[in-house]
Amino acid sequence: MAKRWTEAALKAVLHAGTFLVVYWTVSWLAAHSPARGGYGWISGWWASLYIGYLASIGLLPGLIVAVGYVALGITAVYGQWHWFYSGLPERLDLGFFVYPLAAGAAIYASPVAVNAVAHYVVRRWRRTDAGHLSG
User: Fold this and answer.
1) Is the N or the C terminus of the chain less surrounded, counting Cβ atoms within 10 Å?
2) What integer is the mean pLDDT of 25-34?
3) What's the pLDDT at 49?
4) For residue 135, what pLDDT is reported?
5) Which residues 6+ apart lie within 8 Å of 15 measured at CB?
């Protein structure tokens, strides 16, 4: 059981690291563009989707990533870390928790969920006759 959690934690770090490195790199390269944050998010999302598929990152690391994102967001509210979110509320209210925090966690962890579905479909396809060429 401990090995499973350790592997999940390492894969969560791989997902977060890939996302963040690509996000920061693209934001730096597109520093002249007002849309650099959006480019960074999209590029980080796609890179973590690709690397996550290659590394077979499952749902448990995705859960760890989502919970970590929410924990960081709550800490950002109480620490007034404006680098994490702009327009932070003075206190954690339901509107902030539901929309930017939960939605951000879902978007940030969504490549892991997409990969889990893709791996499931590939496994199912390989077990059927559709996975074999007939000639």
Assistant:
1) C
2) 93
3) 94
4) 46
5) 48, 51, 52, 57, 61, 62, 65, 109, 111, 112
